[in-house]
Amino acid sequence: EVQLVESGGGLVQPGGSLRLSCAASGFTFSSYEMNWVRQAPGKGLEWVSYISSSGSTIYYADSVKGRFTISRDNAKNSLYLQMNSLRAEDTAVYYCARESGQFDYWGQGTLVTVSS
Amino acid sequence: EIVMTQSPATLSVSPGERATLSCRASQSVSSNLAWYQQKPGQAPRLLIYGASTRATGIPARFSGSGSGTEFTLTISSLQSEDFAVYYCQQYNNWPRITFGQGTRLEIK
Questions:
Q1: What is the C-alpha to C-alpha distance for residues B23 and A107, in angstroms, rounded to an integer?
Q2: Using the beta-carbon criterion (under 8 Å), do B55 and A104 form an inter-chain contact?
Q3: B97 vs A contacts (CB less than 8 Å)
Q4: CB A77 within 8 A of CB A10
Q5: C-alpha closest to that of B95 among A100, A59, A52
Q6: Three-state secondary structure call for residue B29
Q7: Which residues of A touch B45 (CB under 8 A)?
Q8: Cα torsion at A91, A109, B37, A37 (round to 10°)?
Q9: For residues B72 and B81, what is the distance between their CA atoms, to the nearest angstrom?
Q10: Can you name the residues that pair with A94 across neighbouring β-strands?
Q11: Closest by Cα among B6, B15, B36 to B106
């Protein structure tokens, strides 16, 4: 069974940093592209970042470029999102999602709250 | 950026009836469109990809149609578990994936 489990969310002050993790199981993690998608409270879905299966190709939404860094460790079956210079508008549930063109499996999400 | 517009924002339908949800793209996305279902407190679940292909395990009462800029998700006979928020997503402009704002399907 495919499972994606996010962790690392919490309350952080504006300008602070946080590192999210996504632990994958039930599939060959190193064969799949992965993404982070977020959802602000009561709002819709916003794509945040993409990483290829090897980690060699990375993309970011303009809203997070220069502040967020996506990475992966295929030996540990894990995906990461390093978030720096956090802003109030980054408050959201962050989901990791496996990509097969579309997003076929999602984690349960981890809540990031940016507030003083 | 390709803007996805869903209508209506809220749809009220009785159980057993048919629901039709619409999604329009600001420019052609070919058939590179997916539909997701999201229930409160849960992650989105993939329903349809390639505009009309049901994902694994999705009941046959869910169907998708359309291409280019106009798409439809139809639920043929609503069950209680189908009341949720539905999102369309284009991946034609990959990696600049964009989602619609969602349609809330509620019990009438």
A1: 25
A2: yes
A3: 35, 47
A4: no
A5: A59
A6: coil
A7: 106
A8: 60
A9: 20
A10: A38, A110
A11: B15
Could you tell me which residues are beta bridge partners of residue B20? B74
Q: Which residues of A fall within a CB distance of 8 Å from B6?
A: none
Contact yes or no for B99 and A107 at CB 8 A: no
Residues of A in contact with B87 (CB under 8 A): 44-45
Hey, are the CB atoms on B42 and A108 less than 8 Å from each other?
A: yes
**Count of beta carbons in the 10 Å neighbourhood of residue B106:** 12
Tens-digit pLDDT profile for residues B20-79:
999 999 999 999 999 999 999 999 999 999 999 999 999 999 999 999 999 999 999 999
Confidence class for position B108, pLDDT limits 50, 70, 90: confident
Q: If residue A22 lies in a helix (H) or strand (E), which one and from where to where?
A: strand A18-25
Cross-chain Cβ contact A47/B97 below 8 Å: yes
For chain A, what percentages of helix, strand and coil (3-state, to nearest 5) are there? Answer: 5, 55, 40
Cβ of B87 within 8 Å of Cβ of A45? The answer is: yes
| Phi and psi at residue A89, to the nearest 5° | -75, -5
Location of structure tokens 């989901």: A95
Percent of chain A with pLDDT over 70: 100
- Of the candidates A79, A92, A3, A77, the one whose C-alpha atom is nearest the C-alpha of residue A35 is A79
* Residues β-bridged to residue B25: B4
